[in-house]
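Hi V.,

You were right to ask for the full record rather than a summary. Here it is.
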Amino acid sequence: MHPLRNPDSSGRGLLLLSLLLLAVLAAVGLVARPLIPIDETRYVSAAWEMWLRGDFLVPYKNGEPYSHKPPFMFWMFHAGWALFGVNDWWPRLVLPLFSAGGLLLTYRLARRLWPQHVGLGGQAALVLVSAMLWVLFSTSVMFDAMLAFWVLVGMHGVLVAADGRRRGFVLLGVAIGFGVLTKGPVILLNLLPVTVLAPWWNPGIKWGRWFGGIGLAVLLGAAIALAWAIPAGIAGGEAYRNAIFWGQTADRMVESFAHRRPFWWYLPLLPLVLFPWFVWPGLWKALANHVRTGLDRGTRFCLAWILPVFVAFSLISGKQPHYLVPMFPAFALLAARVLADRPGDRVGLPALLAAALGAVLILAALGMFAAVNTGAPALPAVWPGVVLVVLALAAWAAGRRGVSPVLSLALLGVGAMALVQLAAMRSLEPLYQIKPLAQSIAQLQADGVPVANTARYHAQYQFLGRLEAPLVELRGEEIGPWLSAHPEGYAVVYLKDRQGLASIDARHKQAYRGGAVVLVDARTAAGLLAAHVE
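Predicted structure:
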């Protein structure tokens, strides 16, 4: 029987399929991508310096307290290193594990919202695991999938509290506390709007008891966060203390309202970040049909979760696509619910777009794009593009034969993201794999040779090289005097392009992001910098 038309289906099969697809995506990420500088390498390096110091209160970056992020993700890295030893792979599995937890919580949340539709949870998990931005940040060393996990815990708490059970407020408080320890006070922006709108999605709620409980939950969350922040502030010194208690809130809010990006900036990104679901007309037809027949409690809950938060992030001018990730479970739940009434049309448009993407990958592999020919050290492989075209045609044919569009689109979304990474692997890895450079720096440090970084340093070499000492960070007028005072030293120098790279006598040299990077002795570094090479 069609899974979307079987109200007795538990959805567990689709949940298991979503977990399997996540495992495949995690494996592809491990194979196809190194730790990407500068963000992923910086976060793992902060955890490494904490581990090296035996200091699990204060994160460090290149020997200085690092106040930009709280420590929860770093603690998760430490837990794995304590069990398996320090390694590169465990930090890259932590986020997929939290993403898996997010799929399970989404499954359970659907059962709370629509107990009469017991199969919706598996469908929601399948929608979520195949949305492009969720795929990307579930397999990246970033904070957003972990934050989404705590948002989901908080949403469970909100629903439990709305059903009259006080432990729901406790669960919400725990989610707030650990959300703050994961990415700061932004967890409140994700959780509190749905509580304020509770009288709309849960009529008859007792306002005094409700908002009193929400206030106590916020206080519990603050207590959990302060249990780390107070001793960390004492241990990290005045500058660090001011940064974590003030800089992460007021200063960042001021910067966020500096009008860096227009309010509509997220809107044109939605078809990409929610591919293939956002471009599928069947979903929007099902949503229109559901609106005509009336919104139920669960649908109102999802809208109260998505809309205020999306508007708030749109008004805040500091925008990044991954800020939207904690809202994706609400989108997945809403999609599963509206498709329960109207399973949707065939998957023609998403299949067509996926086939077009496959054709682009094939053309890039054949050297048809000048930007790829000049910017990448190697052309992409041909076969992922071919497989993506075949997969798109298979999804289209499956739709014509009556196969569930949810299943077809989920496999198409996961397949597209996996194949794009595999296609780009050969082109991008030489630009972002900096472990050999980090190991060369480690060898110099082991020999007692001072090493400097002639630009702003993001600690990208600390963990990959297992460096036990900071690099000297040199910028502007500091560079020349240091090179003169340390003729035996070495410096990391960044080049705007790769022209002439082969002629440079370097201990290590490679393509790096948009240009190149070399590890050279002080005299060579002075010559390169004197030639006005950045």
